[in-house]
Fold this sequence. Notes:
Blueprint: H1 9-12, E1 26-28, H2 39-49, H3 63-73, E2 80-83, H4 85-97, E3 103-107, H5 112-120, E4 124-128, H6 138-148, E5 152-156, H7 168-180, E6 184-188, E7 209-214, E8 227-230, H8 233-242, H9 250-259, H10 263-285, E9 289-291, E10 298-303, H11 308-317, E11 320-324, E12 335-338, H12 342-356
Parallel strand pairs: 1-11, 3-4, 3-5, 5-6, 6-7
Antiparallel strand pairs: 2-8, 7-8, 9-10, 10-12, 11-12
Helix pairs in contact: 2-9, 3-9, 4-5, 6-7
Bound molecules: pyridoxal-5'-phosphate (PLP).
Amino acid sequence: MAPRIAPRDDIALMDGYHSPQVSVDVRLNTNESPLPPPAGFVAALADHIASVDWNRYPDRGATELRARLAELHGVDADQVFAANGSNEVLQTLSLTYGGPGRAIAVFEPTYAMHSQIGRITGATVAVGGRAADLSLDPQEVGRVLAESSPAITYLCSPNNPTGLVETRETVLDVLAQVEAIGGLLVVDEAYGQFAPWSALELISDDRPLVVTRTYSKTWSMAAVRLGYLIGPAWVVAELEKVVLPYHLDSLSQAAGILALRYVDDMEQRVSLLTEERGRLDAALRDLPLEVWPSAANFILFRPTAADADEVWQGLVDRSVLVRNCSGWPGLQGCLRVTIGTRDDDDRFLTALREVLT
Ligand SMILES: *Cc1c(COP(=O)(O)O)cnc(C)c1O
């Protein structure tokens, strides 16, 4: 038999993205919203389907969606770039500004896709660390930037999987450093609506800063692949050269536009989950666990007297799925639980108490 074609050497060595889709009753592993979007949104989208020109390509520039998002954030439409999930936004950034011969910088532990997409698109990944409490020290950023002069520097705020927010001072400090080396700072705000402040307020055509957002979490729309960035118009113009033509289908665009009619509902869901997070956090602190304070819709914790893999399996055996982060850089023995409904979280707590005793 003729030999099979091998993938690129670096791809052959790579591990794919692993987030097991196990069939359980209580799914608290991927930070989705436990609540559906409003019924009015679903009905409006169903109505819209009848008016789609199915034989025609979608609006390539996603004109209306970008105009609505620009309104929401008080920026110009040419400062908005939308794509199939914020992961496609990140990939397009990487294809445009990263790639062979360039570096991207991440500070572990953080969202795995930043480095994964960096590598797949051919860049070198410069990895910085965090302090023992998982906070980011701007001096460490300085060290990594001096060493590798990355084209793209990633921050994630609130950070997945730690839940920690970067302060305005830290973001401004990192931004000044990135600006000094002629790089681009990407702040991933997938959980931005849960946080006390947003780097969106720093966006300007004069700063090499973009902020990414997603419909997957706070908008309860993970099933629609839709995310976007707000940034300088000159960045958006470059991204548009790179992304595939007609990449964002008509239905996703319509879903994104219609969802924005329900900003108040979204904000109510965010407050509800924030309150529930407080309840879950307090309950976790009564157990033999190290618990990180979260400004997102998930909580990172570490069993202090039990093996994380065994705790994870014990929860699965009780039909509760959380994220096992214990193999991630800097997160030995850690698990991450998404804030669910009160019922979901009670089932999780009951199962966890059983497993830990
Ligand atoms: C969930 C998540 C995303 C989401 O990506 P989508 O492609 O929009 O679903 C992006 N960044 C972070 C940090 C996330 O946790």
